[in-house]
Fold this protein.
Amino acid sequence: MRLYKIRKSKIDNLGLYAAKDIKKGSKIIEYKGKVITEKEAEESPKYDNGKAIYLFNLNKKYDLDGDFKFNTARLINHSCDPNCEVTGVGLKLWVYSIKDIKKGEEFSYDYGFSFDEDFKNYPCRCGSKKCCGYIVREGSRWRIKKKKIRK
Ligand SMILES: [Zn+2]
């Protein structure tokens, strides 16, 4: 049985939701895509914007581009308090639960965007108590709080 369902999301358009209760550490869905070399990723204008949502680093040599319709896992939204993470196993990527997840909860992971001058173009609507308002990786969120204080 599939662990996920596709449904409309409050965060952004569509999302993936737990079809049943899921224990922490479960493999939920493969993050499918095309394996490309680092060089291809660097040279293709497709990945120019620095916010390559669907591009994952696999190792020193290869990245995985998940920007394809067949990659259902690309529907998973960002959250500032995520319940999943994407982990590489060889040249494959899997979405794992990092918490116990109840049936009907939406899956999310940290998109890991770096903090730079265009962070305001990526507002976050995850709705969690920890939400910093923008899609920025956890380790950089303090920078946003600092900005808000300075205003
Ligand atoms: Zn958020």
Remarks:
- The first helix runs from residue 38 to 43.
